[in-house]
Amino acid sequence: MIKLPKLRTTFNKGVTLPSLLFIIFITLLSAIYPQLTENALNVIKGFIFVNLNWVYVWAVTIFVLFLVYLMFSKYGNIKLGKNDSKPEYSFFSWISMLFAAGMGIGLMYFSVAEPMQHYSNEIFSGSHYINRAKNAQLYTFFHWGIHAWAIYGIVGLSLSYFAYRYRLPLSLRSCFYPLLKNRINGKLGNAIDIFALCSTFFGITTTLGFGVVQINSGLQTLNIVSDNSFTNQILIVSILVTISIISAVAGVNKGVKLLSNINIISVIILLLFVLLLGPTVYLLGSFTEGIGNYINNFFNLTFSTHVYEEETLPWFYNWTILYWAWWISWSPYVGLFIAKISKGRTIREFISAVLILPTLFNFIWMSVFGNSAIWFDLHNAKGALSRLADNPDALMFRFLEYLPFPAIVSFLVIAIIIIFFVTSADSGIFVMNSIATKNAKISPKWQTVLWGCLLAVLSLFLLNAGGLKALQSMTLITALPFSVIIILFMISLTKALTIDRNYYDREFSVSTVSWSGEFWKERLKQIISFNDKNTVDDFIETKVKRAFIELQEEFNSNEIETKINEYSNPKRVEIEIHYDIVNNFIYGVENKSRSVSEYLINEDNLPDIDENKTFYPYAYFGDAREGYDVRLFTKNELISDVLKHYERFIEIITEQKNEMFISSNNNRKMK
């Protein structure tokens, strides 16, 4: 008998097997019963869009505001990695890759189609053509602008931060670490990654399916193929997925990076061609006015639910809400890829680049292509492009017929779509393998080939059976729960950033200021020890109380009436000097507790600690200022500390400007 070699794999079975079963089940259901599945999913999607659209509106708005806050906050200088980390890619390559992964084929598919569809929509047909043109540009900016990239930015930033700062796996489960701790490594973490893997696969499959149809349509326009047959689609998918697999196997540093750089240069060449040989003055003016229009209407667009304009509600559901759902459903894939290439960037640099640069480029791109199409439709085409608004597969190529060298430019457009197809597919393959292996550093190449083949087979299967729209509806439905997950990302990230900042900003303990080194051995024992409640009670009863008694005697000898207050549960002692006109002076020490990290409990290189709580003596003051731990103070240092605060108190009450603030009308006394 021939003994077959064991197939090496890095797949995580808890994530990969359930994901594959669910992907295959949904694909078969969509292919075998396309109409039934589409109708059922459309009912669910319709219910969500009509009744829960406000969830999307609020979620996306919160994403934008949160990122803007982080960009200008004290957290902006934190690096996605160690403090001395350097970016792995040049700025140009980085922007090229995140742009290709984030928008890709969509820019080619909708750059002419969306403005034309808004322009010719019967909802706006009653308006003058100038207002329709302005609205077309405004809503296109809105759907492809900051809001879309904020969704990608939140996911990408969370993944980058926890992967490179906390050194956790580059996985969605890692973003829950501050909330779930080690539970992210169990079934709950697997469920999060299964969701991400399925969502990524469905999003890429549907997008690539529509991309194949557009490529086929372009080849048909150029008379390269005779029709839009399934045979042609098989040929196109086979060639493109093969290139995608080769690129993915080559890795991000070679395949994806090289193709992204080529693509961004090709896109800029095409953009300049249309700008310079199209209605240039009109385009420059409309872009300038469009930016102003977008800024003026930013908050109105952001919060608008069209609840007072019932006739526009169907348009609102089919465009704005659909877009928010689409971007959210794509965010696991795009976020993971952006995170993979963003190590070493600061949070401020990351947010600025992800929010502003792609948005600005999208605005320029959509203005040049969309406004050119509207201008040609009004002046040259006599409405021919408007009538093709519902056929976006062919609209781009029909638009190019009104520019010089249409055949050559159409070839360039097809080449760009192909490269976008490949960059989306190869980065998608890379991301899916990363999720399925819990970010294994080196995986067998056959796994990359497997994901590529699975994408090709299932997308063709759905194309032939007409199940792509059903799968698209499924993808959009998953956006609702994932929008809640992204909000949890924000909570988790905020908690982690606060801890991060406090760690690096925390100064030496107040008790260390007066250290001379005289009692360094005793202090070392105190630093590494963990006190129980009785030990701290004893510290307060002996050292603190004795210090206060000596102080009381000295104050009394100077004719300053002083008293000592004692309380129990918890144990605390305070020295108080009473005043009739100003607030009393109080300095007290209380027995407080804090939780101890589980990691520290299990640490072998520290003294044993049996409980998850430690107790410490905490100094507090009569004016409710923040106190501190005084367990390392000697008796004389405690006396010195009280006098230091008393000197501050005397200095403040002697200043006339503080008269109202220090009034004794509301004397504070600890109870």
From TrEMBL:
* Membrane-crossing residue ranges in chain numbering: 12-33, 53-72, 92-112, 141-164, 191-213, 233-252, 264-284, 321-339, 351-376, 405-436, 448-468, 474-493
**Example of a GO cellular component annotation carried by this entry:** plasma membrane
The record, for PROSITE patterns, names: BCCT
Membrane association type: Multi-pass membrane protein
Which Pfam family, any one of them, does this sequence belong to?
Answer: BCCT
Q: InterPro entries this protein is in? A: BCCT_CS, BCCT_transptr
Q: What is a single molecular function from GO for this protein?
A: transmembrane transporter activity
- Keywords, A to Z? Cell membrane, Membrane, Transmembrane, Transmembrane helix, Transport
Q: Where in the cell is it found?
A: Cell membrane
User: NCBIfam families recorded for this chain?
Assistant: bcct
The similarity comment for this entry is:
Belongs to the BCCT transporter (TC 2.A.15) family.
Q: Write down what this protein is called.
A: Transporter
Give the organism the record lists: Flavobacterium beibuense F44-8
Q: What is the lineage of its organism?
A: Bacteria, Pseudomonadati, Bacteroidota, Flavobacteriia, Flavobacteriales
